[in-house]
Design a protein that fits this description.
It is globular, with a radius of gyration of 25 Å. The protein has 13 helices and 7 strands. The chain has helices at 36-45, 59-66, 77-83, 91-103, 115-147, 159-167, 172-204, 207-212, 220-230, 239-245, 270-283, 288-301, 303-324; strands at 4-10, 14-21, 26-33, 50-54, 71-75, 250-255, 258-264. The longest helix is centred in the middle third of the chain and has 33 residues, at 115-147. The strands form 2 sheets. Strands 3-2-1-4-5 form a 5-stranded mixed β-sheet. Helix 5 (115-147) runs antiparallel to helix 7 (172-204) and helix 5 packs across helix 9 (220-230). The N and C termini lie far apart (62 Å).
Length: 331
Amino acid sequence: MLAVCIGLDIHKKHSYAAVVDESGKIVEETRIKNTKETLEQFASKYRGAKAVIEATSNYRYIYDVLENYMEVKLAHPYKTRIIAEARIKNDRLDAKMLAHLLRANLIAESYVPPKEVRELRDLTRMRKALIEDRTRIKNRVHAILARNGIFDYPSPFTKKGMDYLKRIDISETDRKLLEINLSVIERINEEIKEIDRIIQEKAKVDGDALLLTTIPGISYYSALLIKAEIGDVNRFPNKFKLISYAGLCPSIKQSGNKEIKGHITKQGSRMLRWILIQCANVAIRHDEYLRNFYLRIKKRRGHNIAIVATARKMLVCIYYMLKRREVYNPR
């Protein structure tokens, strides 16, 4: 049998597969269910072939099944879209395009982290999601108080604030809504405490995370999140690749001999970029080296640019710390 390349356009419940041989001729086009049995049956039929799927939200399960039978590549969705942009798009054409790009070796691959790194990502991202959920519900509480003309009050999420809420004069409906929202916040707080406990336990036995906690401003949570988002630091040949992966490098517009640097690209790991900026805001209050660096840039460019530059500086430190297995020591 001729060597074949397979492109799979993945959806929630099914995928569309296009199989082409080494000459580019269509061997098979089929719609398959995303069940383990169906995927294994299809993969075993083309055992040893090359396949490509896009990095969608549900790629993991399909990737794990297929890689037992064939060589699977994960296509970078943004870069592949640039290569394969088409005016007419449907499942059949997308699958064929992926197969032809794979045959021509034009797939821009995404990093597929090992299982343990994926689990760390799930854990740290869940904590962030819980914090965001709690913030949304807290805003509902403030909105209930605001529509009752109550603006000057202690934090309703403390014991003093709770006592205050019991004494205010509002309708029975709004009082019930307050109770419901506050009970949800209390439950989320319990879940956050539990997930913090798990994160701390994992970070205390993770060599990379322990190294990162030597940087002022990086907690157990921040360290584990950074570790999870970076994965194996050795996959980055230099610090510039890691900076680009975090989306912290400046965009560049070049025409002839003229080169203009703009804002950061923000193309990369959104979570890594977010946590670095959070850590930078803490670090400039506790670390002299980073504070002096921040103040020097802030004087010329303002806070926003200075804090992003500080986050980038921290990432460079992180790169060399993980590469050299060294604790933080800027001097």
